[in-house]
TrEMBL record:
SUPFAM superfamilies in alphabetical order: C-terminal effector domain of the bipartite response regulators (SSF46894)
Superkingdom of the organism of origin: Bacteria
Protein name: DNA-binding protein
Length: 207
């Protein structure tokens, strides 16, 4: 299981951004969540999913603006599930709590933690690679994001050029500068690593 906990940066100086983030994540990932997105202590947002693909996508969405410290916890969740995420417990929640604390001091404001694992793939194998992807995306410009978002929506490059009223060559140049292909190629590999980490944590918990 995967638990994502996001804590707003500089929350004492800025308006509460939890509501907009909850609405955004619920719209994009709601069908992949075990329980609805929840606001927990103060300005924290928490989600639970069984999907490694959804977990990575949520991390990338939540870290995009730089306004959230994001912790990803991997482990088990106590059943039966309650009616709200904030009421749930388990090693994945403990790991997510440790991760979000570490994320506040980490490059990219992301950290990964997992339930104790006896052997196999570890947090140290996965966390730096996810962080590299987060940092890559941090360097992306607004024009780069315009094109990348259209690609993620399934548009062709010529369609993106027409929508943005730029040349096809300009779209291609923006995608290269945005390192879009590197992200697209890295994402499936990171999903596989997270899936393996989850399997190891589940095996350790059951054994």
């Amino acid at each position: 299981m995967f638990v994502i906990t996001a804590d707003q940066v500089a929350s004492r100086r800025e308006a509460d951004r939890a509501g907009p983030l909850i609405a955004h994540l619920a719209e994009r990932h709601g069908d992949q969540l075990l329980l609805p997105v929840d606001q927990t202590a103060g300005d924290e947002v928490q989600l639970v999913t069984t999907s490694a693909e959804a977990a990575l996508a949520i991390v990338l969405d939540a870290t995009r603006t730089g306004r959230w410290s994001v912790g990803l916890g991997v482990g088990d969740i106590r059943t039966p599930l309650p009616d709200a995420t904030r009421k749930a417990t388990g090693t994945a929640f403990i790991a997510a709590r440790e991760a979000v604390g570490a994320a506040k001091r980490a490059d990219g404001r992301f950290a990964l933690r997992a339930a104790p694992i006896a052997s196999g793939i570890t947090v140290a194998d996965v966390e730096p690679l996810v962080r590299l992807l987060v940092l890559l995306r941090e360097r992306r410009t607004d024009p780069g994001w315009e094109v990348v978002d259209l690609m993620h929506d399934g548009r062709l490059q010529k369609e993106a050029a027409a929508i943005l009223d730029v040349s096809a060559a300009a779209v291609s140049a923006r995608l290269r500068a945005a390192l879009w292909r590197a992200e697209a190629e890295a994402t499936p590999a990171l999903v596989r690593l997270l899936r393996e980490l989850d399997a190891e944590a589940t095996h350790a918990a059951s054994g």
